[in-house]
Amino acid sequence: MGRHVISLAGNPNVGKSTVFNQLTGLKQHTGNWPGKTVGLAEGIADFKGKSYCLVDLPGTYSLSSNSEEEEVAQAFIESDRSEATVCVCDATSLERSLNLVLQIMQASDKVVVCVNLIDEARRKGIHIDIEKLQYLLGVPVVATAARQNEGLDDLMAALSKIDSGTLKMNPYMKEALVSLQENPEENKLALLDRASAIANDVVEITDEYYNRRDRNLDKILTQKSTGIPIMILLLIMVFWLTIQGANAPSDALATFFAIIGDYLNQFARIIQMPEWLRGALIDGIYNVLSTVISVMLPPMAIFFPLFTLLEDFGYLPRVAFNLDKYFARAGACGKQALTMCMGFGCNAAGIVGTRIINSPREKLIAIVTNNFVPCNGRFPILISIITMFFVGSSVSLGGSFLSAILLAATVILGVLTTFWISQLLSKTILKGVPSSFTLELPPYRKPQVGSVIVRSIFDRTLFVLWRAILVAAPAGLVIWMLANITIGDYSLLTRVTDVIDPFARLMGLDGTILMAFILGLLANEIVIPIMVMGYLSKSTLFEFESLDQFKNLLLNNGWTWLTAVNMILFTIYHWPCSTTLLTIYKETKSSKWTWISFLVPTLMGVSVCMLTTFLAHSFNLV
């Protein structure tokens, strides 16, 4: 007999992924449910000589098919592939979880209920009568504390009853639930009532102030007077830690790749590799790949864990709560705040995150505007320009903190633009009334630092880096060809730069800068190296050893404070990278909306830069 396939379902923030990770360890991979784009994590759990394939379904509050996550969860649970379902509940909020349990019991007669976070419940003075809950539900119920590995063997023992055929629901409960399905509207209300009645019957709260700490924190983090300032301060701190921490590792990686590059060139000469092939492979593909890795990896390895720690702590839903009213005024969905935060790490990840938005109209608004928050690939551009022209090239703590403040101000400008463009879209091509949604504020929890680091490195940092590498490799070849194919005395890159220079001047830039952005469509990380290559008329990517050298090159090529300002503005307002555009097409399955997502920020960037340049010259500021 092959492995039994077990669905793992539950609300968000109930520790479902922790249960999954503890049971499967490193025996995991991610696949897609056929015909869907939502990734499903699959892992192998071994118990008493037998193996079980656990499928971690997207966190969902119901099986009402209001979102892609709910559709996937329901389809998988009801499919022939799933032999049983483990429904993970939150012991500190059992009533909310039981609504989903009852819906799953209507869809499948082989269900095991896992009451997780039982340790937190004990600390808060919440007692759950597990035996009585099992009697009332008519299915096996197991109490667990997955972080401490408590109760997981009992959970697997309950699942092992599949082999003996004894994992079945109480027939009377099954009959009662099936009868409710005849009227969908009455069914929904009846399930809520039943969930509430069962919870009241089995839960005893001995400390009525058990959630006082959470409420006190919420008074600070979600109040009008303190919520937004604290959010901005945390943003500055995250940026400061990222800037300060990434400098040395980025330099070390760049030096390492330079040494490897020298060895590769020596090897090419030893084997007498043709010069055109050596240039294409080493000066082109290798140099671009090494630049992307050295620029992206260190800040992502810092930013993503910090972001995940805030997520694990329970802060990100508070961000959505604080920004919900602003998105509502813009005719958008408050959940867009979460997808916007994902965009800080990678805009492509932010696009994928829009799956949590139920309304197709609001999902499109979130997709079109996600590019207005700068991603990890654009941070090096912003940091270097801000540092050189508005802070000074000092790498002191004070200098990096001022850079973080100005970077945060730049990001806030992007957020404000997101509100404005969202409102514009909701009143024009995406008209509609903003939908309401129930936003759960989960309890604050002590983050699992080790788990967070591993999860953020493997699930986010390396995933995003790999996608960037896949784009950067062909980009390196294209750039090398443009720089080395000549027409007369000038390279094709120089010819194109000269053609677009007049238009770029209207934007307060120049042809070299605009050409760097155009080629940066493939990967934002290579914009600055391409720009330097253009100014130096080199046929391969080049980087300076210090910001002072870089600034002198820019000043010698006509840069002023206005050029720097327009460079910052166009970095925020320009087309998404090719990886993000590809992700937009996969999510929307529409060329039209992919083009709109390209044109909206581009037209915004060109317009803002032209206006800034016009005003600066009108008032004789340059």
Shape field: elongated
Beta percentage is 5-15%
Largest sheet features:
7 strands, mixed
Give the distance, in angstroms, between the N- and C-terminal Cα atoms: 78 Å
Derived structural class? alpha/beta
Walk me through what this model shows.
The chain is of the alpha/beta class and 622 residues long. The chain folds into two domains: 4-205, P-loop containing nucleotide triphosphate hydrolases (Rossmann fold), CATH 3.40.50.300; 227-618, no CATH class. 64% of the residues lie in helices and 9% in strands. The protein is built from 26 helices and eleven strands. It has a seven-stranded mixed sheet with strand order 2-3-4-1-5-6-8, with helices on both faces. A two-stranded antiparallel ribbon has the order 7-9. β2 and β3 form a beta hairpin. α5 packs antiparallel against α9, α12 runs antiparallel to α19 and α15 runs parallel beside α25. Residues 29-37 have low confidence and may be disordered. This is Ferrous iron transport protein B. Residues 3-165 form the FeoB-type G domain.
